[in-house]
Write a structure and sequence with these properties.
The protein is an alpha/beta fold and 440 residues long. It has 15 helices and 15 strands. The longest helix has 32 residues. The N and C termini lie far apart (62 Å). The structure holds ligand SAJ.
Length: 440
C-alpha cells in the first residue's frame, strides 16, 4: 500500500531538506547532532538543561568526543542550533531521542527520562514525522511505552501518519577508531513503513545501517552486546578468585588462553565493574524477564561476582598488610586511579568508590591520585586527589592500583612503594617478580 506521507518524508530525508532534531544532548546526542549537521541537515538540538544550551550557543562543547571548534562552526553556519523549547519539535521532520536510562537506588530501571521526553514531545508530534529512540532499554519499551503515549496524545496512527523506530547507541566515549559515523547502526521499526523511514534518515549520515525486523530485536541486540561483556568480565573475575585458591597466576592463564587465534576473546579481571553501560544495561534485561517470571541466571550471577570484587580487593589489601604485621586500621593507603576505566575522567559506578568506602570503614587513612579526577564525593566522605604522587607513594603503607591510567610511571611506583596491591596487572612481569607486589 503506497503511503504518500511516507513518500514525502523519505523524499525530504533523501534530499536533506528535512529538518531533524536530537532530543538529549549528552555523550550520545551531541555527536549524533554533529554527524547529521555535517551530512547536510539543519539540526535542532533540544535539551532541558539551560546550561548545555547556553554553552552550545556560545560554540562551546562539553562532550569529550565533540570539539568546541566543530560546534562553533556549525552554530555559525546555522546548520545546528540548540534550544530548551520543546515546542520547536512541531517544526521538524525527524526526532532522535537520546536520554539516559540509569538504575534507581533499588536496582530497578529508571525510565523517567524516557517517559518525560516522550510526554514532552508527544504533544508536538504531527503527520509526517519519524521518531527514533536511541537509549538503551528493555525489549518492548518503544512499542509498549512510547507508542501508546504518542498515539493517544496526537490521535495519529503509527506506520501511516507518523513513524516510530529504535536504534541503539553504540558510543564509546574517547574511542577514535569507531565513532558515531562509522559504527554500524542497528535499526528496528514498529512497522515496515517505520523501518523504511528510519533507515532512510540514518542512511543519509551513517556509513552502515543494519535494518532488523522489529524494535524488540534492536532493543535486545544492544542488551546482548553489553550483557556479553558483563558476563565475560564476571567469568574472568571468578577465574581470579579460583586461581587465588589454586595458587595459579590468573594473568598468565589469560594471556596463555588469548594466544588461541579463534573462538576466544580476552577479558581481564579487575576491582569491579564501572561505567554507565556495562553494569547497568544487563539489569534492564533481567528486570524485564523477572516480570515474565523468568530469572536471568547468568546476569544475576555475573552481577553478584562483579559487585563482590571491591570487597575481594580489600581482603587482598588486608592480607598484604597483615603479612607486613600491619592492620588496615591506621595504615596509610594510596589508591592509584579512581575513574571507571583507564584514560578517562568518568567516575560513574567506579569500583574505586566502593574500595575507598570499605577501606575508610575499616579505619584506614586513605588518599587517592588520579590525573583525570580531582575530587570524589560519596555518601559520608569526600576526598581530593593528591598532587605529589611520588611523595605519597613513598609515604604509603600500601599502594592500591585500581585504575591503570597510562600516564602513570609504574616503574617509579614499583621503585618507591613499600607495598603494592595491583588489581589491573599494571606492573606486568615486574609486579609478578617483586616481593612487594600482590596481584589479583
Ligand atoms: N572491565 C574489566 N575487564 C575487562 C574489560 C572491562 O574489568 O576485560 C571493566 C572496566 O574497567 C570498566 C567496566 O568493566 O570498569 C566496563 O568497561 P568497558 O570496557 O566495557 O567500557 P564501557 O563501560 O565504556 O563500555 C563501552 C560500551 N559501549 C557502549 O555501550 C556503546 C561497550 O559496549 C563497549 O564494548 C566498550 O565501551 C568498549 O569496547 O570499550
Amino acid at each position: 500500500m503506497s503511503n504518500t506521507i511516507l513518500d514525502n518524508l523519505t523524499a525530504k530525508l533523501n534530499n536533506k531538506s528535512a529538518r531533524v532534531a536530537i532530543l538529549g544532548l549528552g555523550y550520545v546526542g551531541l555527536p549524533l547532532a554533529v554527524v547529521f549537521a555535517e551530512a547536510g541537515f539543519k539540526v535542532l538540538g533540544v535539551d532541558p538543561d539551560e546550561r548545555k544550551i547556553a554553552a552550545l550557543g556560545r560554540g562551546e562543547s562539553y562532550v569529550l568526543d565533540v570539539s568546541s571548534e566543530k560546534i562553533s562552526a556549525l552554530v555559525q553556519s546555522g546548520a545546528f542550533q540548540a534550544t530548551s523549547d520543546f515546542s520547536q519539535l512541531k517544526d521538524v521532520d525527524a526526532i532522535s531521542i537520546c536520554v539516559p536510562t540509569p538504575l534507581r537506588k533499588t536496582g530497578d530501571p529508571d525510565l523517567s527520562y524516557i517517559v518525560n521526553a516522550t510526554d514532552s514531545l508527544a504533544q508536538y508530534v504531527r503527520k509526517g514525522q519519524v521518531i527514533v529512540l536511541e537509549s538503551t532499554t528493555y525489549p518492548g519499551t518503544t512499542r509498549e511505552l512510547i507508542l501508546p503515549k504518542i498515539e493517544e496524545t496526537s490521535g495519529l496512527k503509527v506506520g501511516e501518519d507518523f513513524f516510530l523506530a529504535f536504534s541503539p547507541e553504540r558510543v564509546d566515549p574517547g574511542r577514535t577508531d569507531f565513532t558515531t559515523i562509522n559504527t554500524p547502526k542497528v535499526v528496528g521499526g514498529v512497522t515496515p513503513a517505520c523501518l523504511k523511514a528510519a533507515v532512510a534518515w540514518y542512511s543519509q549520515a551513517l556509513q552502515k545501517v543494519v535494518p532488523v525486523s522489529s524494535t524488540e530485536v534492536a532493543e535486545m541486540a544492544k542488551l546482548l552486546e553489553n550483557t556479553f561483556r558483563m558476563i565475560n568480565i564476571g567469568l574472568v573475575n571468578e577465574l581470579a578468585l579460583m586461581c587465588d585458591r589454586l595458587g595459579v597466576d590468573v594473568w598468565e592463564v589469560i594471556d596463555a588462553a588469548a594466544t588461541k587465534p579463534f573462538g576466544f576473546m580476552k577479558f581481564q579481571p579487575g576491582p569491579g565493574l564501572g561505567g554507565h553501560c556495562i553494569p547497568i544495561d544487563p539489569l534492564y534485561l533481567s528486570w524485564k524477564l523477572r516480570s515474565l517470571n523468568y530469572t536471568a541466571r547468568f546476569i544475576e550471577l555475573a552481577s553478584e561476582i562483579n559487585t563482590g570484587m571491591p570487597r575481594y580487593v580489600v581482603t587482598k589489601v588486608q592480607d598484604a598488610l597483615n603479612d607486613h604485621a600491619k592492620a588496615i586500621k591506621g595504615s596509610k593507603i594510596l589508591v592509584l586511579g579512581v575513574a571507571y576505566k583507564p584514560d578517562i575522567d568518568d567516575l560513574r559506578e567506579s569500583p574505586a568508590i566502593d574500595v575507598i568506602g570499605l577501606l575508610l570503614q575499616k579505619g584506614a587513612a586513605v588518599k587517592f591520585f588520579d590525573p583525570y579526577i580531582s575530587r570524589v564525593v560519596h555518601d559520608s566522605w569526600e576526598l581530593h586527589s593528591v598532587t605529589d604522587m611520588d611523595k605519597e607513594v613513598k609515604e604509603a603503607d600500601c599502594v592500591v592500583i585500581i585504575t591503570n591510567h597510562s600516564s602513570i610511571d609504574y616503574s617509579a611506583v614499583l621503585e618507591s612503594a613499600r607495598l603494592i596491591v595491583d588489581t589491573r596487572n599494571a606492573l606486568g612481569v615486574q609486579g609478578k617478580e617483586s616481593p612487594k607486589v600482590v596481584r589479583l
